[in-house]
Amino acid sequence: MKAARFSRFGGPEVLEIVDLPDPHPGPGQVRIAVRAAGVNPSDWKKRKGLMDGELPQVMGHEAAGVVDELGEGVADVAVGDRVFGFSAEGAAQAELAVLSYYAPIPPSLGFPGAAALPAAIETATRALDQLGVGAGSTLLINGASGSVGSAAVQLAVARGARVIGTASPANHDYLRSLGAEPVAYGEGLAGRVRALAPGGVDVALDVAGSGVLPELIELAGGPQHVVTIADFGGAKEHGVRFSSGDAGRAVHALAEIGELIESGRFSLPVVQTFPLAEIAQAHRVSEDGHVRGKLVLLVG
């Protein structure tokens, strides 16, 4: 099968499409013929050597496609079913991928839309679970217009929470359409939030990692009410929880999202698609950092 890989660290030019042996599913896993695979910031961070030192590396943690081989004990899907999910091996940007966690693709979604979901909804759900967001909560999301941020907005609203989200003014109407109350980020953030919520907020989620943890701590009444997915150093400095999949993934999000999508309460825009062969360009766009929704590679 053809797969995306790099054998040295560097810029997008180090990416190659190579032939690798076909993978096979283990117990409880399925193999899919990949139709679409998501691109995440972690991809270019790995390519630059910022996350781990292993070489060579294949890439991709999320994909959507058609089941073509079942692992031992799998009874909840059949060959030919459309599914989306996670590749535990991190090798989803390929013609074939083994999924360790998966769910049926919601009927109204195509493969690109389904491939955009897993990382965003799992990350957002994990953070909301860790913060205990539920009906009656007031949640502040710093960086609410990207793929994880907009997923967190919609999932929190579906739980009955009030959501205040930071974004550039150009994205304020978009946040309102998702059910959030927008505020501009930057200097004076705390005052703008208190204009909407004079008593502060119950909990805060930092998706953007833009150095605002002290303000979020002050608004939420302490570091124990704040989670960041983007500021590892700041989390250590300020005693804030850094949410990562190491502590267990919220894979229940995969099975739960279909109902929200089909009822019109959740959507995640796929901003741009690229053929697998143009993965280097997808990395350039991702690394540029001005992506509102999701980048997806089309395979097969």
Structure description:
It is a single chain. With 300 residues, the chain is an alpha/beta fold. The chain folds into 2 domains: 2-117 and 268-298, Alpha-Beta Complex (Quinone Oxidoreductase, Chain A, domain 1); 121-246, Medium-chain alcohol dehydrogenases, catalytic domain (Quinone Oxidoreductase, Chain A, domain 1, Alpha-Beta Complex). It contains 10 helices and 16 strands. The strands form 3 sheets. Strands 3, 5, 6, 7, 8, 15 and 16 form a 7-stranded mixed sheet that branches. It has a 6-stranded parallel sheet with strand order 11-10-9-12-13-14, with helices on both faces. Helix 7 links the parallel strand 12 (203-206) and strand 13 (226-228). Helix 3 crosses helix 4 and helix 6 packs parallel to helix 7. The longest helix is centred in the middle third of the chain and has 14 residues, at 118-131. The protein starts with a strand and ends with a strand.
